[in-house]
Amino acid sequence: MAVVAGWQGRFFEDFVVGDVYQHPLGRTITETDNTWFTLLTMNTNQAHFNAQVGADSEFGRMIVASPLTISIVLGQSVSDTSQNAFANLGIDELRLSNPVFAGDTLWSESLVLETRGSSSRPDAGIVRVRSRGLNQDGVEVLTFKRAFYVHRRDAPRAASHFPQAATPLSLENEAGENAQ
């Protein structure tokens, strides 16, 4: 038996210009998500939390706060793009192309645009991607380009921090516990 490591994310060497990562987790946004986000971020635009104001808007209902949409799409991309990053360097060309409403499910995907090794940090490189969010109907709701520093596979700081268990998890140990 062997311990099989879970998905560790991509390291600098794993990125190939032109690859597209369709991030696996969709996220349905609720009215509660939107309300909490506006409260946490002190966004006082009532179009996000006042049903009457939303109903009177050109959309006919409350819209999801754009920073929430951005945060979810960026977050969805982390497992495939920046799980092993140690610094975001910038977000550029952010476009909010369609509104998002409570009840919409967001999906995202990222295209690798550029990779380059770092001259100042030999154990890392810079990756640039274009990410976009789609709603459940496949309509693009936002797009942005992002650059980040990411560790190389053998970088000392990229080592796993998983603790060594006092008692290893194994079938033998499981059988002993079930016998008691």
Please explain how this structure is put together.
The protein is of the alpha+beta class and 180 residues long. It has a domain at 12-29 and 64-154: Roll (Thiol Ester Dehydrase, Chain A), CATH 3.10.129.10. The protein is 22% helix and 29% strand. The chain contains four helices and six strands. It has helices at 31-41, 51-56, 66-78, 171-179, and strands at 20-22, 27-28, 85-96, 105-117, 124-134, 140-151. Strands 1, 2, 3, 4, 5 and 6 form a six-stranded antiparallel sheet that branches. The radius of gyration is 21 Å and the shape is globular. The two termini are 23 Å apart. The mean pLDDT is 92. Residues 159-180 are annotated as: Disordered. This is MaoC family dehydratase.
Name the features.
MCH/BMMD; about 180 residues; six-stranded antiparallel β-sheet; Thiol Ester Dehydrase, Chain A; HotDog_dom_sf; MC_hydratase; 6 strands; single chain; MaoC family dehydratase; alpha+beta
Would you give the CATH topology of the domain at 12-29 and 64-154? Thiol Ester Dehydrase, Chain A
Helix content: 10-25%
The number of helical runs is 4
CATH class category of the domain at 12-29 and 64-154: Alpha Beta
Low-pLDDT parts are none
Q: Biggest sheet: strands, sense, closure?
A: 6 strands, antiparallel
Q: Indicate the CATH architecture of the domain at 12-29 and 64-154.
A: Roll
Strand content: 25-35%
How confident overall, as mean pLDDT? 92
State the order of secondary-structure elements, H for helix, E for strand: EEHHHEEEEH
Computed structural class: alpha+beta
Distance between the termini: 23 Å
The CATH homologous superfamily name of the domain at 12-29 and 64-154 equals: Hotdog Thioesterase
Query: Which overall shape is indicated by the principal axes computed on the Cα atoms?
Result: globular
- Please tell me how large the radius of gyration is: 21 Å
Count of distinct strands: 6
Oligomer: single chain
